[in-house]
Design a protein that fits this description.
200 residues, mainly alpha, two-stranded antiparallel sheet, 4 strands
């Protein structure tokens, strides 16, 4: 049993290290396109966050207690929402790129990254309320999930979110995707420079 706990602890450390490298990588969590200074993608960061929270909690609990907690429907729903958001975002970007090619237009240039927080909260017009709302919900329930798990390790299962909470997270992600379809045009950058971006 101790060997399995050690393996789980090692797995958690590797997950932590891997998540850090994903965060600083020039491609993994950034928008599709060319260049090494592309902005971070909201949908990819969201998927990274929930993968780290759920898998990290699973490994952390096993390493600390030696007890195996099965993934429940809440874990699967949270991973599903983030995965579908990322897939939808990629589909929207692909459709826009195809439309650009069909119209024989110049590919849209990416705005340069201004840091992960600014990037995921901004669309082509600047800071965006629907992105802020989605981020707040994901961070709040992500922290709630972690606190509930590690505040009482005598439990035998992960937190269960009711349909209202899951619907709220799904709606915030859905709103992000709907608004993303209209993210076109130019964005004003510092020094009065403007470029036409590819949406996050």
């Amino acid at each position: 049993k101790e060997a399995k706990q050690f393996a789980a602890g090692l797995g958690f450390l590797l997950l932590l290290l891997g998540s850090f490298f994903y965060l600083i990588d020039k491609n993994a969590l950034r928008s599709s396109g060319e260049g090494n200074d592309r902005p971070y993608s909201f949908s990819r960061v969201q998927m990274w966050l929930w993968t780290f929270i759920i898998l990290g909690s699973y490994l952390g609990v096993f390493a600390a207690t030696g007890n195996y907690w099965s993934m429940n429907s809440t874990c699967l729903a949270l991973l599903g929402i983030s995965s579908l958001t990322t897939a939808g975002s990629r589909l929207i970007d692909g459709n826009k790129e195809a439309d650009t090619i069909a119209k024989h237009e110049e590919p849209k240039q990416l705005r340069k990254s201004r840091g992960i927080m600014y990037d995921i909260l901004s669309d082509d017009k600047g800071l965006s309320m629907h992105r802020f709302q989605a981020m707040v919900f994901n961070v709040a329930y992500g922290l709630s999930f972690v606190v509930e798990v590690f505040s009482d390790l005598t439990k035998t299962s992960f937190p269960v979110y009711d349909a209202t909470v899951l619907t709220l997270l799904g709606l915030s992600s859905g709103t992000y995707l709907v608004m993303k379809t209209s993210e076109k045009g130019k964005i004003n950058l510092p020094l009065n420079t403007s470029v036409t971006p590819t949406p996050n």
